[in-house]
């Protein structure tokens, strides 16, 4: 699927790009989680099967 490939490549790019890019991505991630309360419930769904 195209969306999966884009998400994969974006994630790899952020992980290997360096500390400034990773830090910036983490700041945006926590900002979006804090400002969109419904997003937390949706984003935790894929983690559920891994936790059990």
Structure description:
The radius of gyration is 13 Å and the shape is flat. Helices cover 85% and strands 0% of the residues. With 52 residues, the chain is an all-alpha fold. InterPro entries: Cyt_P450_sf. The chain crosses the membrane at residues 28-51. One of its GO terms (molecular function) is iron ion binding.
Keywords:
52 residues; 4 helices
Quick summary:
With 52 residues, the chain is mainly alpha-helical.
What's the number of helices? 4
**Helix content percent band:** over 70%
> What structural class results from the helix and strand content?
mainly alpha
Distance between the termini: 27 Å
Oligomer: single chain
Transmembrane segments: 28-51
Keywords: Membrane, Transmembrane, Transmembrane helix
GO molecular function, one term: monooxygenase activity
Topology:
Elements: H1 2-17, H2 19-35, H3 37-43, H4 48-51
Helix pairs in contact: 1-2, 2-3
């Amino acid at each position: 699927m195209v969306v999966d490939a884009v998400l994969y490549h974006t994630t790899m790019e952020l992980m290997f790009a360096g500390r400034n890019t990773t830090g910036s991505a983490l700041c945006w991630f926590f900002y979006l989680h804090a400002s969109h309360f419904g997003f937390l419930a949706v984003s935790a769904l894929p983690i559920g099967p891994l936790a059990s």
